[in-house]
Amino acid sequence: MRLALALAGLVLLLAGCAGAAPDGPGRAAAPQAATTERVAADAVVPVSVRVPAIGVDEPEVLSLGVAPDGTAEVPQDYARVGWFDRTLSAQRAGATPADVPLPAGRGPTVLLGHVDSRRGPAVFFRLRDLRPGDVVEVGRSDGSVAGYAIERTEQVAKDTFPTFAVFGATATDVLRLVTCAGDFDRGARSYTDNLVVHAVRVR
Amino acid sequence: MRRALPKLAALSVLTAGAVLFSGGTALADTPVDEPDSFTSMFTVMATPDTVIGTNGQPAPGQPGATGTFNYRINSDEDVICYDLTLNGITGEYQSPARTATHIHEAAEGAAGPPRIAFPNPEGEGDTRTSSGCLQGPFTTGVMANGQDTGTGFTVRQIEENPSAFFGDTHTAEYSAGAVRGQLMAVPMGGVETGAGATEAGSTDAAPAALGAGALVAAAAAGAFALRRRAGRS
């Protein structure tokens, strides 16, 4: 039994449900950089995030792209928040940031954070506690702070994940925070669901 | 058969008319059922301020109009599924292509030929939509260098360099484009944002299962700590 558990642990480690293994299969080889370290163009991008209602105060956010297996990259560090940078894939393919500008003032901004590590709660553990009206402040590279108000929370099954309802282009400035939820499927080494919190720009 | 010939000729005239004046017919490439799986997905925020004329100069589109274009691709089958939504677009479509809603090949700030022509979004009021799936080989109805601009194009080329392509729609009033935006890759499937230590939100999980989960997590924790340090060094 002990051996079986140890093996299970090993598999868990290598496959990395949370994408924590930097050299794991299907994960980006590129090191994760904070937005502030990014060779940025003049685009206004998120650099920090505060969610006072659940005690989140991150002075830096990571730039995340699409992993080689097509899934979303997630922070390697359970304690940090990442931002889905729509230009990152193109930049890695050799495009300059200027070639793939972000439409100003339009969404969505998607923030990704872990609900837990293998040892305990992680940065977005309390995301489920957010209620309509709670405020999220996103610091941006031009020094401004964009305020968003929580609108609603939804729990979605990963196998029917609504890609475009989370990552799809929007004409208005909206924010989405994503973490894991549901049951932890030990066979798949993964939570069954995602929690998606939708917020809209208020100031 | 002979009787059909005059009809065919009439059809050709109609087609030529469509090419010249409307392009608004809902014809496009082979419509197919949605494939079982996709190899990539892309989204476009289409706006009037990014439109470029065929002369390479800015040619602003319809003020206040927007388009959100979502594409799902299966490059093994050369299939592209599309969900297109236009807001604030008024008037008739117009394009020399077979339809007026396209994916073109050109980078931000540049003009380029259409590679795929989609059925135009339709609908009452302010919002127009179009959804479906098309399978290559693609034809656009636009000829360049003696061949259709869709010739030789496969959706795999989008996967290889999405920002080299843009989505747009053309109207009679804004013939260079009413709205336009570059393709951007979006991730597919669920987001792996948890490792199981807390089994968050599993209110319906049996206590026994919770215990086992914690045990597995504990078994992994020691080795994981090593890995994490290595990853940071």
TrEMBL record, chain A:
Q: Does the keyword Signal apply?
A: yes
Q: Which Pfam families match?
A: Sortase (PF04203)
Q: Which residues form the signal peptide?
A: 1-20
Tell me if Hydrolase is a UniProt keyword of this record.
yes
Among PROSITE patterns, the record links this protein to: PROKAR_LIPOPROTEIN
**CDD domains reported for this sequence:** Sortase_F (cd05829)
Source domain of life is Bacteria
| Keywords (A to Z) from UniProt | Hydrolase, Signal
Name it: Class F sortase
What is the species of this protein? Actinomycetospora aeridis
Q: What is the lineage of its organism?
A: Bacteria, Bacillati, Actinomycetota, Actinomycetes, Pseudonocardiales
UniProtKB/TrEMBL annotation, chain B:
Out of the domains of life, which is the source?
Answer: Bacteria
Transmembrane domains' residue ranges:
none
Give every CHRD domain span: 47-185
Record keywords: Signal
| A Pfam family annotated for this UniProt entry | CHRD
Keyword set includes Signal? yes
Start and end residues of each stretch annotated as Disordered: 111-131
Q: Which SMART domains does the annotation name?
A: CHRD
What is this protein's record name? Answer: CHRD domain-containing protein
What organism does the UniProt record list as the source? Actinomycetospora aeridis
